[in-house]
Amino acid sequence: MGRCDSTNASIGIKILLYDLISQMNDTNIDIIKNMLYTGCIEDDNDCYNEVYQSICEDVDNVNLKEHLLRECSKVPYSTQVDVNDRYLLDRYLLVPIKNIISTQRWGYNREGTNSNSRPLDFDLSVNTEEYKDITNYTIVFFITQHAA
Asked: How far is the C-alpha of 4 from the C-alpha of 89, rounded, in Å?
């Protein structure tokens, strides 16, 4: 079957990873945990998401905040991340709230252009009520690309 490259354009939350993790408490741990697992690090081919995903794997709720603060404040340990770059805690997390458009590309080592469209008949507003206990974020439009 080959690989799948997918691209999504979304409206969502942009928040400094440190700001999100430091707000974690017993009241909001479920929403923050969901944000951590559905979001991705804003990077431009810098391999921060690979490091981030390895940190977030198989962590229990009891030690999640301490684990994330400790591991994300280390020098990135991926060989593909420049050690002179910023720590993960200094990177932004992008969390999709509303998907606008998606496209996928299947195959082996495909080259070329892929596209998709939709009419301008959608509402750009987003409901942020579930994030009312989270501070220091902005609502943004963003694109994510994923290859598997």
From this structure: 30
Query: Tokens in use for 39?
Result: 């979001």
Q: Going by C-beta distance under 8 Å and a sequence separation of 6 or more, which residues neighbour residue 3?
A: 106, 107, 108, 147, 148
- How far is CA 80 from each of CA 47, 53, 76, 85, 136, rounded to the nearest angstrom? 6, 14, 9, 11, 30
What pLDDT is stored for residue 136 in this prediction? 96
Strand partners, 13: 95, 139
Could you tell me the CA-to-CA distances from 121 to 12, 115, 117, 131, 144 in Å, in that order? 19, 19, 12, 26, 22
> DSSP of 48-65, one letter per residue?
HHHHHHHHHTT--GGGHH
Amino acid identity, residue 31?
I
* Total length of the chain: 148
Q: First-to-last CA distance in the chain?
A: 11
pLDDT at 92: 93
Q: What angle do CA 141, 116, 146 make, to 5 degrees?
A: 60
- The whole-model pTM stands at 0.84
Q: Give dist(CA 35, CA 69) in Å, integer.
A: 16
